[in-house]
UniProtKB/TrEMBL annotation:
Location of the region described as Disordered in the Swiss-Prot/TrEMBL record: 1-40
GO molecular function: RNA binding; RNA methyltransferase activity
Family stated for the protein in its record: Belongs to the class I-like SAM-binding methyltransferase superfamily. RsmB/NOP family.
Protein's UniProt name: NOL1/NOP2/sun family
Sequence ranges of Basic residues compositional bias: 8-26
Positions bound to S-adenosyl-L-methionine: C333, A334, G335, P336, G337, G338, K339, E358, D385, D403
GO biological process, one term: RNA methylation
Domain SAM-dependent MTase RsmB/NOP-type: 321-530
Phylogenetic placement of the source organism: Bacteria, Bacillati, Actinomycetota, Actinomycetes, Bifidobacteriales
Keywords: Methyltransferase, RNA-binding, S-adenosyl-L-methionine, Transferase
Active-site residues, as the UniProt record annotates them: C456
InterPro entries: MeTrfase_RsmB-F_NOP2_cat, MeTrfase_RsmB-F_NOP2_dom, NusB-like_sf, NusB_RsmB_TIM44, RCMT, RsmB/NOL1/NOP2-like_CS, SAM-dependent_MTases_sf
Signal peptide span: none
Length: 531
């Protein structure tokens, strides 16, 4: 049997899936509009259609799912069930594929792509959601007949009967035991449903981060991978100066579950709340923002500046500002604007203004919406290539945030499909962009000013190695010199009163981990331009 788990597998499957899915749609369209209306209300059919678009047409699950589910006319319970089916199946896809292949006694490539997705959904229901065996089998067979064709019923029925004959733990042992013991990475990758290269990247990042040296944090890569498969808490941010955490809490429905954030003084973690229905979120006085993202903005805003040695010497744009100004902030990669809105509300309280930049017009529009409640904290929203700022506006800013485009592998809880979509070879192109943006930021900031380089990825090539490379370049560069600041020390000072955020001994960059901080795996480095 070929490995159904090879890391390139999902993309290959996705491509073939697209064809098969298009065929499925054509078939259902032939049945006419009335039947579409009826099928749209079945959670399994809706989940199948969403998965087909995500896997076959590169749709974003977090954008597509709420839209399709809201338009389906389903009950709240069915909407929640559908969302769980979609996210859970995507998260656990590698393990599900291994189980389906073992039960089907054939390779994934030998199973029709639509049939495979039907079986993934069936296996997820039976083994992860506890749907009773008979319901899991009969609903999966019905789905196969509707979306694949009557001919698929017999095969799906046989495979599903084999799947429900064992529980999840038994299947896990069976499929993992078929992988040689020496291949620990593949074993973890299958058990916790991650591509092998992602397992390796996460392990390397963990080892390099410094936590592994502390007795308090044993190396448990399995625990880290498992966290990627758990739905994250919804975290709100009460934007300072616009609303307090207490007032935000008062705007939530009376039966809402909520608790203060673990780290950010502006965070409120909520459950059983539809954030878009909250008045403060609608008016952008509050927003949905992971605590790791909030901390990145807070670290930039709190990083100490130093006076310009000998007065300003570069860039006309800032020549008239006092010796240690703190009034012009740049958010170089701003879309959709979560961090911008927090920075702008802090800036407004301190008499500063943020220039927000986002080259994608659609995302720049989202930034404009997000900052609409705090116009006094915003200078402008521009749509340029961030790499151009260094030359166009040298030394113009006191603080710069580079929240760089990245692989997003630090937010797998939120974007389960990213692990199947990104490939190891995509990283090199990203790091070139990241280095260009950071180098540009170091030119755009004034001497004595600070740059926060942030990624929602723990991959070393996108994090410390980008900073190392750019610092080495800047040191060689005659007119720009920068040093690394103690981002860990700044982080400890910005967390809410009484919170002791775990960071490794010593000074340096911050790498947050889901299993330690319960945030996205955010990387934060702070650099100060010396001259
Ligand atoms: C990680 S996201 C930023 C998230 C945002 N800071 C927030 O908190 O909502 C990275 C952004 O960088 C933008 N981007 C991509 N290439 C860029 C470039 N050359 N210059 C500036 N921004 C870029 C992407 O469009 C994307 O919106």
């Amino acid at each position: 049997m070929t490995d159904p788990n090879a890391s390139r597998h999902p993309r290959t499957r996705a491509q073939s899936h697209a064809k098969s899915h298009a065929h499925g749609h054509a078939q259902s369209r032939e049945k006419g509009h009335a039947s579409q209306q009826r099928t749209a209300a079945d959670p399994r059919v809706v989940a199948f259609d969403i998965l087909s678009d995500v896997l076959g047409e590169d749709a974003y699950v977090n954008l597509l799912t709420p839209k399709v589910v809201a338009a389906s006319g389903m009950s709240a319970r069915d909407r929640a069930f559908t969302t769980d089916l979609v996210y859970g199946t995507l998260r656990w896809m590698r393990l599900l594929d291994a189980i389906v292949c073992a039960a089907a006694r054939r390779d994934a490539d030998a199973i029709d792509a639509s049939c495979l997705t039907v079986l993934r959904l069936g296996a997820y229901q039976a083994l992860f959601l506890g749907v009773p065996d008979h319901a899991a089998v009969s609903c999966t067979v019905a789905l196969a007949k509707r979306r694949v064709g009557a001919h698929a019923g017999g095969f799906v029925n046989a495979v599903m009967h084999r799947i429900v004959g064992r529980d999840r733990k038994e299947w896990e042992s069976i499929v993992v035991s078929r992988i040689p013991k020496a291949d620990a990475v593949q074993r973890l990758g299958v058990r916790y449903s991650h591509p092998d290269w992602v397992v390796r990247e996460l392990e390397d990042s963990w080892k390099a981060s410094g936590y592994a040296d502390s007795a308090a944090y044993g190396m448990d890569l399995g625990a880290m991978l498992e966290r990627d498969n758990e739905p994250p808490a919804v975290t709100l941010v009460a934007r300072p100066g616009l609303i307090t955490v207490d007032d935000l809490r008062a705007e939530l429905p009376p039966d809402a579950h909520c608790e203060p954030g673990m780290w950010s003084p502006y965070a409120l973690r909520v459950r059983a709340v539809a954030p878009q229905a909250v008045a403060a979120v609608q008016s952008h006085r509050a927003g949905v923002e992971d605590e790791g993202s909030q901390l990145a903005a807070l670290v930039l805003a709190a990083a100490p500046l130093e006076p310009v040695a000998g007065g300003r010497s570069i860039g006309d744009a800032s020549a008239d500002i006092a010796e240690n100004p703190d009034v012009r902030w740049l958010d170089m990669c701003a879309g959709p604007g979560g961090k911008t809105a927090l920075l702008a509300s802090l800036a407004a309280l301190r008499g500063a203004k943020v220039t927000a930049n986002e080259p994608s017009h659609h995302r720049a529009q989202l930034v404009r919406e997000n900052v609409s409640a705090v116009p006094e904290g915003i200078d402008q929203v521009s749509e340029r290539d961030g790499a151009a700022f260094g030359k166009a506006m040298p030394g113009a800013f006191d603080r710069v945030l580079v929240d760089a485009p990245c692989s997003g592998l630090g937010a797998l809880r939120r974007r389960p499909e990213a692990r199947w979509r990104k490939q190891a070879e995509d990283i090199a192109a990203l790091t070139e962009v990241q280095k260009g943006l950071l180098a540009s930021a170091l030119r755009a900031v004034r001497p004595g000013g600070v740059v926060a380089y942030v990624t929602c990825s723990p991959v070393l090539d996108e994090t410390v190695r980008v900073v190392d490379a750019v610092l080495a370049d800047a040191t060689e560069n005659a007119d720009v010199t920068a040093v690394r600041c103690d981002a860990r020390g700044i982080l400890k000072r910005v967390v809410r009163d009484g919170a002791r955020i775990p960071v490794p001994e010593g000074s340096g960059d911050v790498q947050l981990f889901e299993q330690i901080h319960d945030t996205d795996q955010m990387f934060i480095a702070v650099l100060r331009r010396v001259r």
